[in-house]
Design brief:
The chain is α/β, with parallel strands linked by helices. Helix content is about 35%, strand content about 20%. Helix 3 crosses helix 6 and helix 10 crosses helix 11. It starts with 6 loop residues before the first strand and ends with a strand.
Length: about 400
């Protein structure tokens, strides 16, 4: 049996409402800034929710050739940009690893925004006016394929559409591939470009998003008693994973290590989590077992913290099952109050935040936590705190009852 490889994270590529590039995102996050504003991508004045965490300074031409830019939509463009940032950050020698590098991308909705736009064109002007490349732009695997094409990577390139857990699951699958020796390196993460009228509107109809339009900066309130839903965001987060020994040999900067991955499904409801959190706890427990880590060794939690009433409550029930009476003493980070919820991309952002926190000895705070919900008895930090942590558990959950967890370790 082939010996399992340790898996290092050597590159972070972030395209987020808090900034483009991991460094900018991290600095803005620690400043306490909030990226949630009035939605301006389209007219949402008649919608129950009228806010988002947009990225208004993204320039695709800074990352793609003119020809590649013309061939891709925003969904693929921000994915390729995040991958480019991650590869450059890692200094990964892709030229010598083309057949031995995989791409693993997660997205809840793929290129649905372009499909929505082109449907309007079709209805108004007919088939001949529809963008010729529509069919190859909207499918969920387009981002992974475009990343592979951009770097000439001929290793496995796959995508998942596992709702808000998609980015975390992509990282988990990449981790397994590198650990098993199937690839020597991988680009993995999530991407989402959902800010289109029907797509955005569908989430308002589902009553999943906050309607606190009079106080948008304080609308996303993970674990707060006054929470009323999440705020939608857009963006991408890609990580470079590689064999730990090879990263050391080439003197790469190592953000940290992935030790374990676990997943589960509630098998209960398409939009509501299982209230007692038992299947989320199963995913957490599997990640700990996979990494041969005891629950008593975890020093901080990077929570999903969607800011929905039932979601946050069920998540806490899961933590209670894993950590028991120790839970209130464990520092918890929930950052969606600052960068919003970019569905499948957010889990990748949060893994990056956890790794940066361990590197710098900081546990980020949770904004807008003015009055903790009595049913959510966890140790959320209201402001960032200097804290030396070695092991962090990162949790993601999504529609369909999908749960994913990763155990992360400081180098």
């Amino acid at each position: 049996m082939t010996q399992a490889h340790r898996v290092a994270v050597t590159g972070l590529g972030m395209v987020t409402p808090l900034g483009i590039g991991a460094g900018q995102m991290w600095r803005t996050l620690l400043s306490g800034a909030i990226a949630i504003r009035a939605l301006t991508r389209f007219d949402a004045s008649a919608y129950p929710s009228r806010m988002a965490a947009q990225i208004d300074d993204f320039d695709a031409s800074a990352f793609l050739s003119r020809r590649r830019e013309q061939w891709t939509d925003r969904f693929s463009q921000i994915a390729v940009a995040a991958a480019r940032l991650a590869v450059d950050d890692a200094g990964l020698p892709v030229e010598s690893l083309r057949s031995q590098t995989g791409v693993f991308a997660g997205s809840a909705l793929g290129g649905v925004a372009l499909a929505e736009e082109q449907m309007a064109v079709f209805n108004a002007q007919g088939l001949r006016s529809v963008r010729p490349l529509l069919a190859i732009s909207v499918f969920g695997g387009a981002a992974a394929s475009n990343i592979a094409i951009e770097f000439g990577l001929t290793g496995p390139a796959g995508a998942n559409s596992n709702s808000c857990a998609a980015g975390a699951m992509a990282i988990g699958e990449a981790f397994r591939a590198v650990r098993a020796g199937q690839v020597r390196a991988a680009i993995a993460g999530g991407v989402e470009a959902p800010l289109a009228p029907l797509t955005y509107g569908a989430f308002t109809v589902a009553r999943a998003m906050s309607t606190n339009n009079d106080d948008m900066e304080h609308a996303s309130r993970p674990f707060d008693a006054g929470r009323d839903g999440f705020v939608m965001a857009e963006g991408a987060g890609m990580l470079v994973l590689e064999r730990y020994d090879e990263a050391v040999r080439r003197d790469a900067s190592i953000y940290g290590e992935i030790l374990g991955y676990g997943s589960s499904n509630d098998a209960y409801h398409m939009s509501a989590p299982l209230g007692d959190g038992r299947e989320t706890a199963s995913a957490l427990g599997r990640a700990l077992e996979d990494g041969a880590i005891g629950a008593d060794e975890i020093e901080a939690i990077n929570a999903h913290g969607s800011s929905t009433r039932i979601g946050d409550r069920a998540e806490v029930r899961a933590y209670e099952r894993i950590f028991g009476e120790r839970l209130p003493k464990i520092p918890v980070t929930a950052t969606k109050g600052q960068h919003g919820h970019a569905l499948g991309a957010t889990g990748a952002w949060e893994v990056a935040i956890a790794l940066l926190g361990m590197r710098d000895g900081v546990v980020p705070g949770t904004v807008n936590l003015d009055r903790a919900d009595d049913e959510c008895g966890i140790g959320c930090l209201k402001t960032a705190r200097k804290m030396d942590t070695r092991l962090v558990l990162s949790n993601s959950s999504g529609f369909g009852g999908i749960n994913a967890a990763l155990v992360l370790a400081r180098r």
